[in-house]
Amino acid sequence: MFFERPDSGNEAVVMVHVDFPEGDNREDLDEFRELVISAGADPVDLITTRRVTPDTRTFIGKGKVEDVAAALRLHGAELVIFNHALSPSQERNLERELQARVLDRTGLILDIFAQRARTHEGKLQVELAQLEHQSTRLIRGWTHLERQKGGIGMRGPGETQLETDRRLLRERVKNINARLEKVRAQRDLNRRARKRSEVPTVAIVGYTNAGKSTLFNALTTSEVYAADQLFATLDPTLRRLQVPDLGEVVLADTVGFIRHLPHKLVEAFRATLQEAAEADLLLHVIDAASPERDGNIREVEKVLREIGADALPQLRVYNKIDLIPAAQARLDCNEHGDPAVVWLSAREQQGFSGLLEGIAGLLGQELFEADLSLNPDDARLRALLYEEGAVREETFGDDGGMKLQVRMQLQDFRRVLARAGVREERFISVPSDPW
């Protein structure tokens, strides 16, 4: 990969964590340690400090920089990782003063993603995010390239090394984006084919290391890589699953979310996350035994809003109940009697019947199937229904009218009506007021 670092085994690392007051800068220390270990590093020391705001020059201040330098000398380490996002100038200042490589939280997550990506699309997405992250930190990142030599008819000020680097980097980003567009087009084609075949999609989402891949493997008897580490899964995997009283669905395993997931990664992985954004149902897998459970739920909901998936039907799946004393597998419904929460253990395969019952309950009631009578003025609605792959049969009347046999998720039909500017009351019956 373009900016992938060579594998150097378990590299000794000094970790730096700043305890800020509650707010946007606050990060979890335990999660930071897990990230470092997941990257294959050996955390030899931890430097912590309290600050109200970051130091503009070095993030941690002069005194703590000296502490970090002492830790590097003590352990013979050459890498410092911060549990926070650093500006390019802060990173350069720290490297100059510490005489060691400095990596921030975003760079650390990118490094983990680079190790985990397996598919062509995943590798392209990671490289794109790395390039965009590096573009703001570029000084002499391409020193292996020689400057073009001058000659007769070629003399002039020419490009500096940095200008050449930036131009080549822009060209590489442009090339990757073009290749990703082809992958996205193919993925869109596959999604439309699934819609035409009337198979609903259920996407598994959740915080990283919540047990999504373990659940996916247990339900589909697949062998997707699952491990007790952050970001074990990067590339989406699709498998068919038979659900009693509903039929066949497509189950999609997706990348895990995390606090302050770098925006560049959300952008780069938008095509992958589209499996979640265009699903018929989301299974939000939650580590029920985690002390950070509520905070993790909020972070997942935040990313779902970013990709436009927050309005989709959602079934919360509280996993790892085998780690909670006296916890029982069960399915809980909301005040309307709809499935809302499932308690289960993917590892022990407890509570799967409740999960399948919940999926069938939510998808079965959300299906819209009807014969629609359209007039010639409804051409946009007709086109959108075809675009969604919802039309099963169409007949034409002598008056120019059309009758469409439609089958799709109710929420998708409501969205199509809104896009076409058609009132829901024309096709969806609204309960009358008993008074």
Key features?
Alpha-Beta Plaits; Rossmann fold; 435 residues; disordered C terminus; seven-stranded mixed beta sheet; alpha/beta
Describe the structure.
The protein has 3 domains: 11-113, GTPase HflX, N-terminal domain (Rossmann fold); 199-365, P-loop containing nucleotide triphosphate hydrolases (Rossmann fold), CATH 3.40.50.300; 368-426, Alpha-Beta Plaits (2-Layer Sandwich), CATH 3.30.70. It is an alpha/beta fold and 435 residues long. It has a 7-stranded mixed sheet with strand order 6-7-5-8-9-11-10, with helices on both faces. The chain has 13 helices and 14 strands. Mean pLDDT is 80; it is low at 1-8, 140-156, 225-230 and 430-435. The radius of gyration is 26 Å and the shape is globular. The longest helix has 36 residues, at 161-196.
Compute the average pLDDT.
80
Structure classification: alpha/beta
What is the name of the CATH architecture of the largest domain? 3-Layer(aba) Sandwich
Which strand order do you get reading across the main beta sheet? 6-7-5-8-9-11-10
What's the end-to-end separation, in Å?
A: 67 Å
What order do the helices and strands follow? Answer: EHEHEHEHHHEHEEHHEHEEEHEHEEH
Q: Which CATH class of the largest domain? A: Alpha Beta
Total beta-strand segments: 14
- The amount of beta strand, in percent, is 15-25%
Radius of gyration: 26 Å
Q: Kindly report the CATH topology of the largest domain.
A: Rossmann fold
What sort of overall outline do the alpha carbons produce when their principal axes are compared? globular
Question: Major β-sheet, in short?
Answer: 7 strands, mixed
